[in-house]
Amino acid sequence: MGEILRQLGHLFVQTIPTVIFVSLLAMMLDRLFFRPLIGILKRREEATLGALKRASEQSAEAEVKSREYEAAFHAARQELYRVREANRRAALQERDAVLKAARESSESLLREARATLETEAESARRQLAAGVRSVALEITQAVLEGEKRL
Q1: Residues near 137 by Cβ (< 8 Å), separated by ≥ 6?
Q2: Could you give the CA distance from residue 77 to residue 60 in angstroms, rounded to a whole number?
Q3: Which of 21-35, 74-88, 106-120, 125-139 has the lowest mean pLDDT?
Q4: How far is residue 97's CA from residue 90's CA, in Å, rounded to a whole number?
Q5: What DSSP assignment string belongs to 35-91?
Q6: H or E element, residue 148
Q7: Residue 149 — very low, low, confident or very high, per pLDDT cuts 50/70/90?
Q8: Which residues of 16-35 are buried (b: 16+ CB within 10 A; e: fewer)?
Q9: Dihedral in degrees, nearest 10, Cα atoms 116, 121, 124, 129
Q10: Which positions ≥6 away from 56 have C-beta within 8 Å?
Q11: Which helix H or strand E contains 150, and what residues bound it?
Q12: In the predicted model, is pLDDT for residue 150 greater than 80?
């Protein structure tokens, strides 16, 4: 058993430089390779998360602006409809006013024409009445003269 322990001790002493070398290599790899790589990966992750966060914020801002645009567009469309309706009503009122004026003018012309016609008809009746008397006298005289001749 003493021999085994002595061999183990000798093996242990022989492995010390390898252990030291591997330890130094691990420390060098850690400092020169793994730490910078981990730092780069962390910065990359932070940049990615930051970009995602900014994209999310920009998306939310775009959504808000889109809603504002839609609201403004809706309001403008409503205003356009209101103006169009007001113009239509004004045009209808103007048309009604023109029609009313034309109707009143035509009724006035019609009254004047009726009054003139009635005056002319009365004048024609008087002329006929006067003419009837003279024609009746002539007919009466002609009949009476005709009876005298027979």
Answers
A1: none
A2: 25
A3: 125-139
A4: 10
A5: HHHHHHHHHHHHHHHHHHHHHHHHHHHHHHHHHHHHHHHHHHHHHHHHHHHHHHHHH
A6: helix 35-149
A7: low
A8: eeeeeeeeeeeeeeeeeeee
A9: -140
A10: none
A11: none
A12: no
Angle at 36 between CA 35 and CA 41, to 5 degrees: 95
Whole-prediction pTM value? 0.45
Distance CA 74, CA 5 (A): 93
Q: How far apart are CA 147 and CA 137, in angstroms?
A: 15
Please state the rounded mean pLDDT for residues 54-79: 95
CA 23 to chain centroid: 75
Q: How far is Cα 9 from Cα 47, in angstroms, rounded to an integer?
A: 53
Whole-angstrom distance, CA of residue 2 vs CA of residue 134 = 185
Residue 70 and residue 83: Cα distance in Å, rounded? 20
